[in-house]
Write a structure and sequence with these properties.
The protein is α+β, with helices and mostly antiparallel strands. It contains 2 helices and 5 strands. The chain starts with a helix and ends with a helix.
């Protein structure tokens, strides 16, 4: 196999592996969040800080991202801080119900009633990653076919 063929296979493999790895990461994140909300302990937490980050560049319009920092006290008396999403109307000092698993209070989540945002985001991302994976597989298949034609013709 020539260097060009090996390089193509290596690059194609990365394009196939990347969406799979991203999908696994997203599924695990949503599973942790859902498990904390369904089976975790609940307590009162407070939003203590909001940071707004503006992203711009690359010829794209700028976007804002808000990071919400929450604080709560576990049933054992340990003070814990964590980042999570919150409604846009949230201001520092607002109180929320927090769900956490006793073994991982640092992975707590704000328990908003009827909040299915994580599942919706996961669904959208998995559709996108499925499209990316399908495209990568098609391109890799065509590339390998072309390489085998050239290798067979020599």
């Amino acid at each position: 196999m020539t260097f060009i063929a090996l390089a193509f296979v290596a690059i194609a493999s990365l394009f196939v592996i990347a969406p799979i790895a991203m999908g696994v990461t997203l599924v695990n994140r949503v599973r942790r969040r859902t498990r904390a909300q369904r089976h975790g302990l609940r307590t009162e937490g407070r939003c203590i800080r909001i940071e707004t980050v503006r992203r711009s560049g690359g010829g794209r319009p700028s976007s804002l991202r808000r990071y919400y920092l929450f604080e709560f006290v576990t049933h054992e008396g340990r003070q814990v801080r964590f980042e999570d999403t919150a409604p846009n109307t949230t201001v520092p000092g607002d109180l929320f119900t927090v769900s956490y698993l006793p073994e991982r209070p640092d992975r707590a989540t704000v328990a908003l009633p009827g909040d299915r945002r994580a599942q919706r985001e996961l669904g959208c991302m998995l559709v996108f990653l499925g499209f990316a994976l399908t495209t990568a597989l098609v391109v890799a298949g065509v590339g390998i076919g072309v390489l085998s034609l050239f290798a067979g013709g020599s």
